[in-house]
């Protein structure tokens, strides 16, 4: 396959899967400008790495997530990304994450995304993939950890979230 064919194939796959990049950028960057910059940085890295993509080894979405999350985590480290540095998610963030521009965010969804924003980089990636209905095996492949480790980490995150939501319901916060 030549350069033009590779470019056309990449563009078709990009159009089909660009929502993944937007979701990753929304979870790992703050402010609209930074999210756009991160999404562009991810797109550029995907294009640079595309020649090495082998569809026999991984689905495109798995490969894309792996690169997008690596770029996002590197970005977070460069920016000195502690969980507390993130702005609270507003309606625009939730719309981007939900993929539905006219969706009405509810308080529970807002609380969920605020909780996700407080997680460390690995757990944020883990829960993002989980919420995308990725299998434990695919999450493990993207993150380079075992499926058992994925299950354990997801269960711990769920317990922590349940505790947070129960406490919020009890206190009325």
Radius of gyration: 17 Å
Describe the biggest sheet? none
**Count of domains:** 1
Note the total helix count.
8
Query: Overall mean pLDDT score?
Result: 81
Outline, from the CA principal axes?
Answer: globular
Outline the secondary-structure elements.
Layout: H1 3-28, H2 32-49, H3 60-78, H4 91-98, H5 107-118, H6 121-131, H7 136-143, H8 147-171
Description:
This protein has eight helices and no strands. It has one domain (3-171). α1 crosses α6 (121-131) and α6 crosses α8 (147-171). With 173 residues, it is mainly α. The N and C termini lie far apart (57 Å).
Features:
globular; 73% helix; mainly alpha; 173 residues; 8 helices
Write a compact overview of the structure shown.
The chain is mainly alpha-helical.
